[in-house]
Amino acid sequence: MLKCIAVMTSGGDSPGMNAAARAVVRTALYEGVEVWGINNGYKGAIEDDMYKLESRSVGDIIQRGGTFLGTARSPEFKTEEGRKQAMANFKKHGIQGLVIIGGDGSLTGGALLSKLGMPIVGLPGTIDNDVWGTDYTIGADTAANTIVDAINKLRDTASAHRRIILIEVMGRKSGWLAMTTGIAGGAEYVLVPEVKYNIDDMCQELKEAYDRGKRYSIVVVAEGAGSAIEIGKEVGEKTGIDTRVSVLGHIQRGGSPSVEDRIKASMLGEKAALALISGLSNVVFGFDAGKVVSIDLNDAVHNQKTLDPELIRLARVLA
Ligand SMILES: Nc1ncnc2c1ncn2[C@@H]1O[C@H](COP(=O)(O)OP(=O)(O)O)[C@@H](O)[C@H]1O
Ligand SMILES: O=P(O)(O)OC[C@H]1O[C@](O)(COP(=O)(O)O)[C@@H](O)[C@@H]1O
Ligand SMILES: [Mg+2]
């Protein structure tokens, strides 16, 4: 049984990270275990920016996006020296195990920390939904709902003006957000980094559809598939149709978490704390077909999650 654990959030923030951290803290306290919060991810671990948490430290946060612990991207942590400094700080405070809430990069960092002897339990926290072994990542549902709300609004104005509107959404390497919101938002095209596309073919089809009387078109572009501004310029020139571009940006990462993100993050937070306290480590908790599952940490970071071909097919059929 561990007597003192810590929790951190790392990488891009995502709505529901607060709910997960809250569940870790309250579960640990319920079990009579001391729990620390590390500010700003690995940056805070290296800078010794950590403090003991109480139940009230995590009050009034379940409904908030972002993360009360702060988050960061830490280049120093990618060095052996940085990781050793973080380990020394954990040891100084008697921290015996760590829950890391973050994306693929943060979990990769966690796998390296565990090699230095720190028990690690990871929770997938990223709007990109790109962590291997889990259908679900904390925050992706809320972000997808925000994007669909934006698509709905863009459809109104696209329809009024008979325009093509491209909307760029996040996803550096992953098209999950673009594909799911493209389907849910009724987009004509979804451009993702995982699938090759031909702009000339797309323009031809868009033009033919307009000639048949179509009023407007929506194209969702994952940022990893190219700049929507550049693609939009080309589409406007090649089709001769009035075209506009909207880059959604960080609006899609903020905001109050959805019920799904609050509940699932809370379930994962409890599991993570209980597992770590009981001596389990090197695991990531996620969801598979609606049930909580544990994934080996090294498997989670060494495998690449692929975009479900069924989603790609469905988007084409329904366009
Ligand atoms: N290969 C790596 N080795 C060590 N630390 C890493 C590695 N990749 C990422 N990290 C740490 O995790 C942080 C967050 O990773 P990043 O990829 O930016 O976000 P996310 O966890 O959301 O995918 C990085 O700033 C770095 O400190
Ligand atoms: O906040 P930043 O630094 O602009 O990062 C933007 C990136 O963050 C994300 O929203 C989340 O990425 P990570 O989960 O890998 O941090 C990406 O989709 C996007 O490319
Ligand atoms: Mg990532």
UniProtKB/TrEMBL annotation:
Its cofactor is Mg(2+). Substrate binds at residues 126-128, 163, 170-172, 223, 244, 250-253. The keyword Ligase does not apply. It is found in: Cytoplasm. Pfam families: PFK. ATP binds at residues 12, 73-74, 103-106. GO terms for molecular function: 6-phosphofructokinase activity; AMP binding; ATP binding; fructose-6-phosphate binding; identical protein binding; metal ion binding; monosaccharide binding. ADP binds at residues 22-26, 155, 186-188, 212, 214-216. This is ATP-dependent 6-phosphofructokinase.
